[in-house]
Structure prediction request, 607 residues.
Amino acid sequence: MLNLTPKQQEIVEYLDGSLLVTAGPGSGKTRVLTQRIANIIEKRKGKVLALTFSNKAAEEISERVKEQIAEEDFERVEVGTIHSFCLDVVTNKGNQIGLPSGLALIENEKDKLELLKRSCDSLNLSLKERELREYYLQIQNFKQNFITPDLARKEQHNIDVINLYESYNNLLISNRVIDFDDILFYAYKVFVDRPRVAKNYTRLYRYILIDEAQDLNETQYKIIQALTRDFYNLMMVGDSAQSIYGFNGSDSDIMTKKFVKDFEPKEFILKENFRSTYKIIDAANRIQPHSKSQSVYPLEGVLEVHSFADEEEEANWITSQIEYLIENGSPWVENEIELEDIAIIGRNRYLFDSLEKCLQKKKLSYSFGGSNVHLECETIEMKIFETGLRVLVNPHDDLNYSKVNSYLSRENQTENFLQDLLSNREINNLELNDEIVNAIINAWNILDKDGSDFMVALNEIEKTYLSLCQLEENFQFLIQNDLELWKERWSKYCKQSVPGGRSLPYFRNQVSLGKFREDNNEGVSLLTVHTSKGLEYEIVFVLGLTQGTFPDYRAKTHSQKIEEKNNMFVAITRAKRECYLTYPLIKVMPWGDVKRQQPSEYLLFID
Prediction:
């Protein structure tokens, strides 16, 4: 393990009191954060809570901390996203503000709109699809700003929206489900209305650390404030130059100004870049002069700008350059270069159209790395299994009980949803395989007796389908993939939990939060700037650098323009050894017109 620099060591050893670390790209942010956690565990009592913004980042922090402390001490460390922590607060302490027990998370937008339509029916409110979505966005906005229906009435908002908001909330609670915005809304309410609960959390977690703090929004900061009354062992680490989520309400001023004013932290700045070569750091500093990243490696590296006749020529050159690097290597990269060492970054995903065709033509494998897509079951049979799981963990879930019956083409027959699922074997949908559906019902019964027997339940389904003859080949492939998806999720959960402490409701909610999603990182990674954040590659291509594309034409205000510069800064600093900036001189518009392009204003800083 590399030695810490004197400043990194000082941060690691700063144990008591509030702390703000501004950490530039490649400055060892995660290393400092995890070693400080290890140091706290070694020298102080109590537990440590580390919160970040993605499941991937939480997983990386967990793994690094595990490497540095004794196995039995890891029980004193809790690492997760802000949403996963708040969901635990709501499910465990929600009864303190009148919420029912056994709440489950509803993440599917269609399901939310279905409940909203039911609410409209109960209010005799007739809305077109577009109006329904507009009302839903207003309800989301109320929740994100902690505005209750009563407060909305006092502020004299649209009465139809308010009535629908109240009815929708009531329907959610009667089904014992909450939506994504409720997680923060109710966690905040728990901490504000029941300050003793917040106090108990800070007695349990003696140290709280916030990673990527530049991405905090006002709602999240209010929760942190409500949690940490009269509590000062709070650390924030981030970099305002990498603040690129303003469209989601994030504001780096929360870290650099509000936190400083409210907590008066000891401040440290980490400028040394241990990731990138000199030319890349120099280019990044020209984009964001206040970053002041300092080169550590005495390597020059590559930073080149290339223009091309059109997007097709640009894509051809990038793929040819990738082939050259794979075959010949780079003087700046010690090992052989593999496809996984290379990323292509675009401001928006549509920029990859020509590139994908070239990569396919050259038979170069690629993936939209970092996309972390939410995978769903492909077969109706396994969709039934998945939907029934929701009723198993939440027997009041009328919505998903109705869905199961819809898949099976049978009427809702009882108010005892769970009992009906476990005992009713009526199947009226001729497209379904009866024996596999019966195996799914058997699997539900196994889980109803013991939720930790998840693998036994999956094996019940797998054993049945493998025993059947004359199944269509594609169906076999799809159902096996569906089973593997759930096996992988359960396997990941088991690695992060201990026997005897596993809970089917907790597992189901964490799946809804995307905790056990699989990233496909095979081949060259095609990334938008936002999905590239936190990642690093030996070789990076940033394509489509034309005025109006990058910077985006929609960046009009001063703050939007700053955020666009941050996007460019993030894109360049993903590269460790070589970075190529490319743009086409003309573009063919979707309607067939040819439009001349101007190079991005950012290239003027670099040339």
Q: What stands out?
A: The chain has 25 helices and 18 strands. The chain has a mean pLDDT of 91. The first strand starts at residue 19 and ends at 23. The radius of gyration is 26 Å.
